[in-house]
Each structure stands twice: as structure tokens, then as C-alpha cells.
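Hi team,

Below is the intake form for Mediator of RNA polymerase II transcription subunit 11 from Monodon monoceros. Please confirm the fields before the structure is written into the shared record.

FORM ID: S-0412
PROTEIN: Mediator of RNA polymerase II transcription subunit 11
ORGANISM: Monodon monoceros
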Amino acid sequence: MATYSLANERLRALEDIEREIGAILQNAGTVILELSKEKTNERLLDRQAAAFTASVQHVEAELSAQIRYLTQLPSGIANSDSGKK
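The structure came back. Fields below:
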């Protein structure tokens, strides 16, 4: 049972990463839209740029942790668990 709990936790972490990537894309879109205006709102650009940077750093750290975890698994374990129900 603990294996399924750990697997579910890993899947939830990946779903969180996916949501954060969506937020990154929204921040980038907001910045691009704002930059297309004749007069830009510098405060909005600064906030969006800071949010973008923080989100990218968080996603990078989380993906690195996921990759580290996967590289520490003995080969064959991840594949053998995928067929169980």
C-alpha cells in the first residue's frame, strides 16, 4: 500500500508542476500583451516578470527532484509497478 501512496504523491507533484507551467505561460502572455501596448505599465511588468522567474525556478527545482528520485530507483522497478492494479 505504501508504494501506491508514494506513487500517488509523485503523480500529484507532477500535476502541480503542470499547473505551475500553465501559470508560467499565462505570465509570459501577460507580459507580451503589455509590451505590445504603446504605454506599458512598468509595475505590472515587474510583478509578472518576478512571478515568471519564481515559477520557473520552482518548476526547475521540482523537476530536478523528480529526476533525482527516478535515477535512484533500481532499474526495472518503475516498469514492474506500472502493470499492477
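SUMMARY LINE: The chain has a mean pLDDT of 86.

Thanks, M.
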